[in-house]
Design goal:
It comes from Streptomyces triculaminicus. InterPro entries: Bact_solute-bind_prot3, SBP_3_CS, Solute-binding_3/MltF_N. Keywords: Signal, Transport. It holds the Pfam family SBP_bac_3. This protein has 320 residues and is an alpha/beta fold. The protein folds into two domains: 205 residues, Periplasmic binding protein-like II (D-Maltodextrin-Binding Protein, domain 2); 85 residues, 3-Layer(aba) Sandwich (D-Maltodextrin-Binding Protein, domain 2), CATH 3.40.190. 35% of the residues lie in helices and 18% in strands. The chain has ten helices and 15 strands. The strands form four sheets. A five-stranded mixed beta sheet has the order 5-1-6-15-7. A five-stranded mixed beta sheet has the order 11-10-12-9-13, with helices on both faces. Helix 4 packs across helix 9. The N terminus is likely disordered.
């Protein structure tokens, strides 16, 4: 690793520690009831039990609305949106070592939500949330939204509510150049593979490891560091995240093809249905405008260099 790259990782690691401390220090929000306070974790679990056993279309979300319900009123009364994000995913949510500011595709989306709800894109408190703490952070009311390359799936919609899909990706293998690992297949046999705990990659490896030994870590960046240090042979992660990691480190590359199809959504507490509708209204505006839509502008700024050929955002699906 070069001195410049080493400095970048050191800066990111230091920032991660600081943000983790901030998350730990943040007091849990008061329970939300009909007056706008978050349901306790027990209440969320009760709702989750009533979720349908079958799941034909997990990407379908509530229809957009700009009405100010209890959750939106709570955010307005506080004067700030509390957003759980990543600060280690290059191009998506990362702390720019030059500016020390959080930047990326997900960060721009969060600022769009803050502008729509509060009239100011800077009225956001960002909290760095590890992959395996995304759902607990919402259940405990520590954040209003999670915008952190979070895949919508049948298991997760029983625990949290999602917006419509704002990006589509798939799980893929990241390996050093020259590695004998060639795809998510038997070339992984006898290898050590890293993925984030609580991620879709962990679920896929649990279902079929192809003979690999699996190491789980709190964040995807931890996997890249392990790969750079030679402690693992490959990483399983979202193709979108892997493309950003390959852009950071030219000694690694994506191999094989994505072996899943996944949609990213903004996640919220199950009880905050008015906020889900409001975020969906923001996404409607964010997608609107063709090649000059805010979505396409953000794509060209952050992702086009590594994820080529995308010409439009995913079409929204609604269930009522």
């Amino acid at each position: 690793m070069s001195g410049r790259t080493g400095g970048r990782w050191a800066a990111v690691a230091a920032a991660a520690c600081a943000m983790a401390a901030a998350l730990a220090a943040l007091p849990p929000a008061a329970p939300r009831d009909a007056g706008g306070r978050a349901p306790a974790a027990a209440s969320v679990r009760q709702v989750a039990v009533r979720a349908p056993a079958k799941c034909a279309d997990p990407e379908a979300s509530l229809r957009p609305s700009i009405a100010d319900g209890p959750a939106v009123q709570r955010i307005k009364s506080r004067g700030r949106l509390i957003a759980g994000v990543d600060q280690n995913s290059y191009r998506w949510g990362y702390r720019d070592p030059a500016t020390r500011e959080l930047s990326g595709f997900d960060i721009d989306l969060v600022r769009a939500v803050a502008k729509a709800v509060l009239g100011d894109p800077d009225k956001v408190t960002f909290l760095a949330i590890p992959t395996n703490q995304r759902i607990p952070a919402l259940e405990k009311g520590k954040v209003d939204i999670i915008a952190r390359t979070m895949t919508i799936n049948c298991d997760r919609i029983k625990q949290v509510a999602f917006s419509t899909a704002y990006f589509e990706a798939g799980q893929q293998v990241l390996a050093p150049k020259g590695s004998p690992v060639t795809a998510f297949d038997d070339s992984l046999k006898g290898k050590k593979v890293c993925t984030a705990k609580g991620s879709t990659g962990e679920s896929e490896l649990r279902a079929e490891s192809h003979g690999a030994t699996v190491l789980t870590v709190p964040n995807q960046l931890d996997c890249l560091v392990r790969l750079q240090l030679g402690q693992v042979d490959a990483v399983i992660t979202d193709s979108a995240l892997a493309a950003g990691q390959a852009a950071q480190d030219p000694s690694v590359r994506l191999v094989g093809k994505p072996f899943t199809t996944e949609s990213y959504g903004v996640a919220m507490n199950l009880g905050d249905q008015d906020l889900v509708r409001r975020v969906n209204a923001v996404l409607e505006d964010y997608r609107r405008g063709g090649a000059e839509s805010p979505w396409m502008v953000a794509y060209r700024k952050w992702l086009a260099a590594d994820l080529k050929g995308i010409t439009a955002p995913p079409e929204p699906k609604y269930k009522d």
